[in-house]
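User: Sequence for Alkaline ceramidase below. Tokens please.
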Amino acid sequence: MWSHLQRGSSPVDWCESNYSISPIIAEFVNTVSNILFFLFPPILIHLFQEYAKFVNPAINVLWVLLMVVGLSSAYFHATLSLVGQLLDELAILWVFMAAFAMFFPKRHFPKFLGGNRRKLGFYASVFAVMSTGFLVMHPAANAFALMTLALPALGFLYKELHRVKCARVYRLGLRCVAVCFLAMFCWIIDRMFCDTWLSIDFPYLHGVWHILIFIASYTALVLFAYFNVFDERPEQRPQLRYWPRNDFELGIPYITFKHPCKKDRNLAI
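Assistant: Structure tokens for Alkaline ceramidase:
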């Protein structure tokens, strides 16, 4: 049991050379590139105060889970331990499941749920627990299994973008998809062509993946938060805004409302 906590016990080792920069951090760049997972979520919690108050306070769970992903990923790359790898992958799984339970459109609910989002949250939790067991038993296949979860998420994003009429939301959606595909491209070529990157002394594409996938992930969550209100509470008139300047669309996006009203408890998880 304790051997899984030992440094280098994970079967996964990324392209970056181990302990080449720091004697105590295995993959230095892959570790520190998780910094956005710590910097952005507190800002998002602040920006989404109105959303948490009038729609669903569970939105903050997603921002906290992103911080857990960053912490787990940093620990994994710093130690390359099997426990670190599993924590990293399980944190990603639970972000997916929490977002699915919170934002999956009610018009697509199966009949046995009766439009009850709490029931969806229960079944999503059961699936997450079962998948957790699978990930623990088969750690070598985890990264590829988790990567496949992005495909249905992108499919839903594409479908929802064609239902909204706001050009600003549509542009953000296109940027999100582009960044997501660029992130996956960096992950794949770092994994498959490591010798090439080592030959030019740039084995850091997995660190680039961390930065890009965080941007794509939190942007997707902002978009799905918008779609959720647009679909289920259109009377609130959700609006996409940017911080620190609303006229700068490369800032941090968040959701506000033109007509905020008291939240419906049936929407909370």
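Confidence is low (pLDDT under 50) at residues 265-269.
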